[in-house]
Write a structure and sequence with these properties.
The chain has 263 residues and is an all-alpha fold. It is built from 12 helices and no strands.
């Protein structure tokens, strides 16, 4: 009976994994298709990668997406980490209120946030473009960083910073050499979430951008109305980029741990 349950569990796990990863494999395979067909393979070719790199609109969208994602990740990670550290030193009532407010952008539907940002930028007379897109991404990425860093801060000894100050460290040294290293896993997790959210966002980006500034999600939306296999090539590069980032994030700590053991 137990063997049957294990077998059924393995089958369900296999089908679930196949359900999630089969579309990704499908995209990768058909990015090398020789024809425009998205359902029938007719040979191996790199023509769609060549067409992608030759398309100025597509390359501009890639550049804008990466630049905005990196800038939004850096700013939101710094702001979110400092905000989380500040909240950890506040009174419980104030901390609970701010945390509930911080959860609003996460729980709020993206379409509502997008319309709110659109009305806000229009009210203050800011022309839609790169700046509004970057500010919007920083705005909705920061709460995720705070949410990721806060649990790590709760697990720390509340007297850790005071002990560092008593031993002669300056407040900045206590922050950078004592607090930050202890919560680094939470900071890295928050940064990865922020990068992914920024890289993948469509609804908010669609409402706040303008002047020819498009990211990959908006470009794919405009191209989805007609068959263009270059989308598969672009998607494959995005998958490889995300996989590479995940590998680096997971491999670097392992290598550091091995070096420490050797020393």
């Amino acid at each position: 009976m137990e063997k049957k349950k294990r077998m059924v569990s393995k089958i369900i796990l296999g089908l679930t994994t196949l359900f999630f990863y089969l579309p990704i494999l499908y995209i990768i395979v058909f990015s090398f298709n020789d024809s425009r067909s998205l359902t029938k393979l007719s040979g191996f070719s790199l023509r769609w990668y060549e067409k992608m790199f030759a398309d100025s609109n597509m390359m501009n969208a890639i550049v804008y997406t990466i630049v905005i994602a990196i800038l939004a990740t850096i700013v939101s990670t710094i702001v979110g980490t400092l905000a989380a550290i500040g909240l950890s030193r506040c009174r419980r009532v104030l901390r609970n209120v701010v945390e509930q407010i911080n959860n609003l952008p996460i729980m709020n539907p993206e379409i509502v946030t997008a319309i709110g940002l659109l009305m806000f930028f229009s009210a203050i007379g800011v022309e839609k473009g790169f700046l509004t897109l970057l500010l919007a991404h920083i705005m909705f990425c920061t709460p995720y960083v705070i949410l990721s860093v806060s649990p790590k801060l709760r697990s720390l000894d509340p007297n850790l910073a005071d002990a560092a100050l008593d031993l002669g460290a300056t407040p900045f040294q206590a922050l950078t050499k004592v607090i930050v290293p202890q919560i680094m896993p939470g900071i890295i997790s928050g940064a990865l979430i922020a990068f992914t959210m920024s890289f993948d966002d469509f609804i908010i980006s669609y409402f706040v951008t303008g002047n020819g500034v498009n990211n990959i999600s908006i470009l794919v939306y405009t191209m989805s109305k007609r068959i263009n296999p270059s989308i598969n090539a672009l998607s494959t590069l995005v998958i490889l980029l995300i996989t590479l980032v995940l590998m680096i994030v997971n491999v670097v700590p392992i290598m550091k741990e091995k070096r420490r053991k050797r020393v």
